[in-house]
Amino acid sequence: MALLRAVLRLSALLVPLFILPIARAQATSAAQKVPPPSGVTASIAGAVTDQTGAVLTGASVTVKGADGAAKTTTTNDHGEYSITDLPAGTYSITVSAVGFKDFQADGIALAAGQSIPIDALMEPAGLATQVSVEGQKVSQVETETAQLSGTITEKELVKLGLNGRNFTQLIALTPGVSNQTGQDEGKVGITGSVRYSVNGGRVEYNSFNVDGGDVLNAGLNGNNSTLIVYPSLDALSEVQVLTSNYGAMYGRTASGTVLAETKSGTNQFHGVGYEFIRNEGFNSKNYFDPGTKAPLYRRNDFGATLGGPLYIPGIYNNSKDKTYFFFSEEARIEKSPLGPSIDQESYNQAVPSLAERLGNFSDVCPFAPPGQNGIPGGQVNFSRSKYPDCPGNLVNAVTGQYQTYPGNQVPIDPNAQVMLGTNIIPLPNSNIGCNSTNGSCFDAVVSPSTHWHEELFRIDHNITPKMRASFRYIHDSWDTAVVTPQWGAVVNSFPTQQSAFTGPGISMLTHLTNTFSPTFLNEVVFSYTSDHITMQPLDSNGAQFQRPTGLTMGYLFNNGFGGKLPGIVVSGNNLEYGGLGFGVDPGYLPWHHTNPSFNWRDDVSKVIGKHTLQAGVQVVYAQRNELNQAVGANTGDLQGLLTFSNVGSANSTGNAFADFLLGPGLNNPRGGIKAFQQDSAQRNYYARYTVTEPYFQDDWRLNPRLTLNLGVRFSLFGNWHEKYNNVYNWVPSAFNRSLAATGTIDTQFGNLAQAGTCNASGGDCTPIPLNIGNLSPLITNGLVRCGVIGWPGWKGLLFVANGVNSFGFTSAVRWVPLLPT
After folding, report:
1. In sequence order, which residues have a C-beta less than 8 Å from that of residue 5 and are 6 or more positions away?
2. CA distance 704 to 88
3. I need a labelling partner for 731 at 20 to 30 A (CA). Which of 82, 329, 469, 681 fits?
């Protein structure tokens, strides 16, 4: 508790520091630059000496950017200088001193958050000559910190060819980063992926920041993460990847940190227009593709950018050094062939033949005389090894003999007939192209349209020479038709249950930088991000998902069934269906999701002697509002899911599709169903959480050859909670063993039953009643409602686990030996 109180006192002391300016700046070594706390700006610092090593005081140092903006300072009593608060870009530096030749270095590329030491060695004035250092001749080896990172420059962003034009693809160029997205073509929007492993770390433990604001949409489905917005490649000035050993000012995650910086306007107008085209006319035809040409495949990616000064001639900003703007717009129109898996771009699935849909399985059975004039057909015996897919009934367990249905005609249950009439299991349309023993195939190529449109606007304004404000807005609009329910419990084998998938995202950010003195800098960033994802089911390929009025099948919960057909899974190893079967399910749709997040951070830097001190705090308030989907044991299927299989099912005829057709009868009073599951309800959940993270960093330059990087960051996690306390969890201490002993599992059907009511084999037990309005204590044994009756309570900023306060703690001690030259 003493440590905890110390932590809270530290947080209380830090916050006022961030908002109150310091009246008196202490004398300091200017060579100890003030690095930008948020990683948005950069700095250049160094010492100016003559050829004897004597320091030169009062030398003029000017840094000029590509936009013409310049900053000038003079060396202090120790011959040292520091120029901070430089936006990422390319700079030149000029050092002048009376009696000495000018020193000049050009082509200095500064990344966001980077600090470069440049020492100037001045030569006595003689002839009118000038010493110049060009581009890469300037050493940019990181000697101030121990952080390992990689930078993708503006030139690399726009010049390297990318399959998908997704800027995150380029971070794999950084040593130690591996691409785990599984996407050859980098996608954007909701189907985009940022699954990158940094130095072997988990893919969900990275953070992504654009202009200092977090844009990661973490855990959208399981560990699948995407970005709320994907800035255009032509709108970015650089991307930096911090892989390890970075300072305490970067936190929240335990792996890599990706920092992207958008372009800003300059004192001159600059713009670009572009279009990238791909078309099926450039592609060859797959052997199994229907038709005479390649499937529809189109990519049209076009856009433009414009940046420059914002001024009104004769009225405002005539010198063009006050306000700048930058605007980017990009649009994509895509049509891609999609299949049932990431490795397939077409549907080539074995399906029941037309005769089998009518109950006639003569194509997989021995000949049996057909019925005529109302007289049942004949029946013959067969062995399963010779006719593995023939539906029949076991007549001799010793010899393994089965008997066909009369005339090989399986009786069709009226409910099966109604479900087949919806065409969610499509008719065969080809006799080739699939793995079927009787040549009954469904072959299709579906190329749904995807539209992505993004606008980015940024404005930068110099309030005073020492205070700059900026505002940045990004809006992504993304929509597509998904050929199967996204993230469903069943991976559909056919494109008969499609959905409209939309996912607009927004990111807004304001940034204020105040340079109180050359040694004292303050930055404040406030950002807001959110997405609004919806999915709506669609009828497609002649199928309909709506529940027909004639469907009278049983159920577990009379919940309205979402107005949808039940899902159907025909599994097992029947060779006529490819040896794996097929499945189709309307899924948990319609579905919606939003995740508004508010992020505030305040960072200060102060140079005191040989110490560069940085301190700050980041506060995140996040929401996650969504309808529950297929997560964990939940399928989201209010309509239920029917499973049929010729493997491991006591009710099977030997053919899983015949099991689907078969209704209750004398030989099979329960029909051919292997399993049925159904969710009782879907609920909207409104999750809330707060994270507060103060940090302190000290970069201590002991001497020109040794720098210590010392830092600590605290992660104070607010208790995750649901707004209306509608979340439950199983807690071992709430579990009643005596109560549990009164129940058992029916070994025949697998349901929860009353102990002592089963037969000798443990089956045919008395089931526990399933009443949603009054659940049996056996079902709810050990379940607690989170947020009420102390399970758990809300305790301010700290996470509460079993009544004990806890907090996250990270620290780093780093040193960089500088070898003599």
Report:
1. none
2. 26
3. 681
Tokens describing residue 36: 């930008």
Q: Are 470 and 459 in contact (CB under 8 A)?
A: yes
127-165 tens-digit pLDDT: 455 555 554 434 345 666 667 778 888 888 888 888 889
The phi, psi pair for 15, rounded to 5°, reads -60, -45
To 5 degrees, how large is the angle CA 105–CA 107–CA 112? 110
Contact 530, 624 (CB under 8 A): no
Picking from 715, 716, 722, 729, the residue whose alpha carbon sits closest to that of residue 688 is 722
Q: What angle do CA 189, 191, 193 make, to 5 degrees?
A: 95
Three-class DSSP labels, 61-104: EEEEECCCCEEEEECCCCCEEEEEEEECEEEEEEEECCCECCEE
CB 555 within 8 A of CB 561: yes
pTM of the model: 0.76
Cα 105 to Cα 92: distance, rounded to the nearest angstrom: 6
Whole-Å CA distances, 524 to 38, 262, 511, 601: 9, 17, 6, 6
Q: Which of 234, 259, 44 is nearest to 158 (CA)?
A: 234
Residue 487's identity, in one-letter code, is W
Task: Write the burial class of residue 343 (CB in 10 Å: 0-12 exposed, 13-18 middle, 19+ buried).
Answer: exposed
Alpha helix segments (H runs only) across 151-300: 154-159
| Cα dihedral value 209, 212, 214, 216, nearest 10 | -10
Entry field: residues in the chain: 821
SS3 351: coil
pLDDT digits (tens, 9 = 90+) for 271-325: 999 999 998 888 888 777 767 788 788 899 999 999 999 999 989 988 999 999 9
Strand 721-722 to strand 752-754: parallel, antiparallel, or no bridges (unpaired)?
Answer: unpaired
Which residues have CB under 8 Å from 440's CB, separation 6+?
A: 350, 351, 352, 353, 354, 356, 428, 431, 576
